Amino acid sequence: MSKLNSFKSIADQQIVLQLRNLNKIFNTDTPLENHVLHDISLQISPGELVALVGTSGSGKSTLLNIMGLLDVSSSGELCIQGNSIQGLCEQKRTQLRSESIGFVFQFHHLISAFSVLDNVLMPLMLRYGKPSAEQISYAEYLLNEVGLANFKHQKTNRLSGGQQQRVAIARALVTRPALILADEPTGNLDTQTADEVFSLFERFNVEHQCAIIIVTHDPRLSSRCPRTVCLTDGRIVYDGVSVDFKIP
Description:
Elements: H1 10-13, E1 17-26, E2 34-44, E3 49-53, H2 60-67, E4 75-80, E5 83-84, H3 90-100, E6 101-105, H4 116-128, H5 133-145, H6 161-173, E7 179-183, H7 191-208, E8 211-215, H8 219-222, E9 227-232, E10 235-241
Parallel strand pairs: 3-8, 3-9, 6-7, 7-8
Antiparallel strand pairs: 1-2, 1-4, 4-5, 9-10
């Protein structure tokens, strides 16, 4: 049976992301061995908006990289939309990542030599080559949704930080992913702009029913997520309703 066709139960197929007893150890069997993640089990359903919080060094970035298929765990299992990634070759991992996951980072990683529209289309161009008329139309729709329809032909280095992050959100959505991973997406923005950008995540979460996991140090923003997952020393110490969460 193909690895991509494992976990065929109806319940699994309804789950966007599932981690089972996941561990990450660096420098295994050396004096520098570092057990960063301990038996992480986590389940994310379609349409969930989840804040991932924890102090520096708690393992948030490592966990996010593994969930985004940018790194591999030392043990345990990771499934994306019912597809186990265990044993997948790099080509299959890349395919699954490009089809199912969108990324928004603290530093937006836009290409300044390209237009705003081309930056949004970049994931599709990397996958298919020249974008179709339908794909261009959807990218323009997303730019309109983030308030940048009039900027589509401008170079991204002429935009403000908040506008650039809006482009990055549209880029993450252009492949219609089931899951968006956002790593401190408002970390470089002032309070008002951060609130505006976060409101876009809330809106797209509802309208597109894509699951969103946001790593943030801002308790104002994490409290707006219905669910909070807190890591301490590589372990989940809280997973529940955000309004009930107390910062450790």
